[in-house]
C-alpha cells in the first residue's frame, strides 16, 4: 500500500500538471483582503482536487487549507493534519505564469512528518522523508555559508521598513532577493541560492518549507525567537541553525 | 558569409557553454569598488574569449567592455562599436550559480543594431534583428498591461530609499521583484513577467536590453527623462512607451 508521502507526491505532481495544461486559460480573479491579495478559480480548483484526494484515501484526516473560509485550528492533538497552499505566489501565477508553487505539509500530533513544494513551471519537487531532503531525485545537502558571502530572500515591506531588523541584517550580506512566493523562496533556500528567508507568513506559507529545511540543518522561528504558532500571520524566518545566534543580533521583534 | 549577428549568437552561446561546463570550478574572486562589487576569473576569461572573437573577425571594431581598466568612450562617430558585459549578475554567479547573463550589444554610428542576452543556466538567448525580438527561436510580442496589474523589477537601494520616486511608483503596482541581474531582469521584462525595470546602471547593463526591448515597444530613459548617456552609471528604466507619461508622474530625478 502506498504511504501518505508516496500518494502526496503523485497528487501534487498531478495538480502541477493540471496548472501547466491550463496556464493559458482565462482566469477568474478575485480580491481577498486587499487589491494585491488575489485568488483565482485555479487556487480553488487545485485545493478541491487535493482535498478530495486526501479525504478519499484518509477520510478521518484533517486539512488546514488556505482557501477555506472556515479554517480548522492547528492542534497537537490532531493525529493526522495536512496543511495546504494550493497556489503559493498567486500574483506571480497571474502576472508571470511562473514562479509559483503548490505546497503541502503533513503533521502527526503536531509534529511535521513531511513536506512537499512543487515549483510548477520548473518541474522541481522539493520534498523530504523522515530523514532526508530532496529536489526531485537529488538529495539536498547542507552547506556551510557565512552571512557576508550570502544572499537573503526577503519580504519587500519588512526589508524596506527594517521591520524586525531585516534591513540591518541585510547590510551584513551581499544583498537581498525578492521573488514573490514563499514556496519558490524555500526552493532557493534548499538549493543554497539564498541563506535565509524572512517574511510575514501564514502557516501554509512556511509549513512544508520548514519541515523540509529542517532535514538539512535549518530552523524556523519568529522574529521574536519563538516557534511559529501556526494560527495566524507572523514574521517568520528560516535560516541555518549554526547562524541563528548571529542573525539574532539584528533580527528582533 | 555570416553576419555580425549570426557570429555573435554563436560566440555568446559558446561562452555560455564554457561557463556551464565550469560552473563547479573553484573561483578566484576579487573585490572591485566595494565588498559587494565582485569580479571572478571567469568574468575576465569570458570577456577575453568574446573580445578575441570580435577582433579576429573584425579587427577595426571597437569594444566597450565591463572588465577593461581603460574603457573606450561611447561615441556616435564610431562605425562599429560593441558593448560587452561578460557576466552580468556576478554575485548571483558566485552565490547561486544561477540567474546571471552574458550580454553583448552592437552599435553603428551610435545606433543600436542588435543585442543579445544569454540566461546561461536556463539556456535562454534573448536577441533581436533590426525588426523583431526573440527568445531562442520564439518571437516575442508586446503585451498591453496596466500598471495596477503589473510587477516591477527594481534595484533594492532605489526601491527602499524611494530614489527617483521608485517606491511611490511601486505602490501603483502589484509589487516589486529583485533578481540581482540586469540581464535576467531584462529577460523577465521581454517575456512580460515584469512591466518595467528600474536600476542604477552602467552602459553594459542596459545596452543589449534596451535595443531588444525597443523592438516590442519599450523605451529606455534616465529617471530625469533623458536618453542614457552611455558614459557613466545612471538611474535608468526600461518601460512600455505607452506608459511613460503615467510612470513619469512618479519617477523623477
Quick take:
The structure is a homodimer of 253-residue chains. Chain A is an alpha+beta fold and 253 residues long.
Helix-strand layout with pairing:
The structure is a homodimer of 253-residue chains.
Chain A: H1 4-21, E1 29-31, E2 38-40, H2 41-57, E3 62-65, E4 81-88, H3 90-95, E5 101-108, E6 111-119, E7 124-128, E8 133-135, E9 138-139, E10 152-154, H4 156-160, H5 166-170, E11 176-177, H6 182-190, E12 196-201, H7 203-214, E13 218-222, E14 234-240, H8 244-247
Parallel strand pairs in A: 3-4, 10-11, 10-12
Antiparallel strand pairs in A: 1-2, 4-5, 5-6, 6-7, 7-8, 8-9, 12-14, 13-14
Binding site for Mg(2+) (chains A, B): 66, 85, 87-88, 205
EC number (chains A, B): 3.1.3.25
GO molecular function (chains A, B): inositol monophosphate 1-phosphatase activity; metal ion binding
Describe the structure.
The first copy, chain A, has 253 residues and is α+β, with helices and mostly antiparallel strands. Chain A folds into two domains: 4-139, 2-Layer Sandwich (Fructose-1,6-Bisphosphatase, Chain A, domain 1); 147-247, D-Maltodextrin-Binding Protein, domain 2, CATH 3.40.190.80. Helices cover 30% and strands 27% of the residues of chain A. Chain A has eight helices and 14 strands. Chain A has helices at residues 4-21, 41-57, 90-95, 156-160, 166-170, 182-190, 203-214, 244-247; strands spanning 29-31, 38-40, 62-65, 81-88, 101-108, 111-119, 124-128, 133-135, 138-139, 152-154, 176-177, 196-201, 218-222, 234-240. In chain A, the strands form three sheets. Chain A has a seven-stranded mixed β-sheet with strand order 3-4-5-6-7-8-9, sandwiched between helices. A five-stranded mixed β-sheet of chain A has the order 11-10-12-14-13. A two-stranded antiparallel ribbon of chain A has the order 1-2. In chain A, a hairpin with a 6-residue loop joins strand 1 (29-31) and strand 2. In chain A, helix 1 (4-21) packs antiparallel against helix 2 and helix 6 packs parallel to helix 7. The model of chain A has no long low-confidence stretch (mean pLDDT 96). The A-B interface holds A 35-36, 91-92, 95-99, 148-151, 156, 159-160, 167, 174-180, 188, 192-194 and B 35-36, 91-92, 95-99, 148-151, 156, 159-160, 167, 174-180, 188, 192-194. Chains A, B: Mg(2+) binds at residues 66, 85, 87-88, 205.
Amino acid at each position: 500500500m502506498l504511504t501518505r508521502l508516496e500518494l502526496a507526491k503523485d497528487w501534487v505532481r498531478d495538480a502541477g500538471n493540471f496548472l501547466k495544461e491550463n496556464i493559458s486559460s482565462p482566469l477568474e480573479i478575485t480580491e481577498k483582503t486587499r487589491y494585491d491579495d488575489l485568488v483565482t478559480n485555479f487556487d480553488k480548483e487545485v485545493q478541491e482536487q487535493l482535498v478530495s484526494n486526501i479525504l478519499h484515501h484518509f477520510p478521518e484526516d484533517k486539512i488546514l487549507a488556505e482557501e477555506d473560509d472556515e479554517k480548522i485550528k492547528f492542534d497537537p492533538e490532531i493525529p493526522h493534519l495536512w496543511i495546504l497552499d494550493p497556489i503559493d505566489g498567486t500574483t506571480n501565477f497571474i502576472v508571470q505564469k511562473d514562479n509559483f508553487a503548490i505546497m503541502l505539509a503533513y503533521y502527526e500530533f503536531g509534529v511535521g512528518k513531511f513536506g512537499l513544494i512543487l515549483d510548477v513551471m520548473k518541474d522541481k519537487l522539493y520534498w523530504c522523508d523522515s530523514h532526508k531532503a530532496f529536489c526531485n531525485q537529488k538529495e539536498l545537502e547542507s552547506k556551510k555559508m557565512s552571512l557576508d558571502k550570502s544572499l537573503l530572500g526577503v519580504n519587500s515591506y519588512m526589508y524596506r521598513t527594517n521591520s524586525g531588523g531585516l534591513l540591518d541584517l541585510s547590510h551584513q550580506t551581499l544583498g537581498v532577493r525578492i521573488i514573490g512566493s514563499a514556496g519558490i523562496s524555500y526552493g532557493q533556500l534548499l538549493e543554497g541560492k539564498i541563506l535565509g528567508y524572512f517574511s510575514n507568513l501564514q502557516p501554509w506559507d512556511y509549513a512544508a518549507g520548514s519541515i523540509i529545511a529542517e532535514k538539512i540543518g535549518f530552523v524556523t522561528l519568529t522574529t521574536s525567537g519563538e516557534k511559529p504558532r501556526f494560527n495566524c500571520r507572523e514574521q517568520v524566518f528560516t535560516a541555518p541553525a549554526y547562524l541563528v545566534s548571529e542573525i539574532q543580533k539584528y533580527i528582533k521583534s
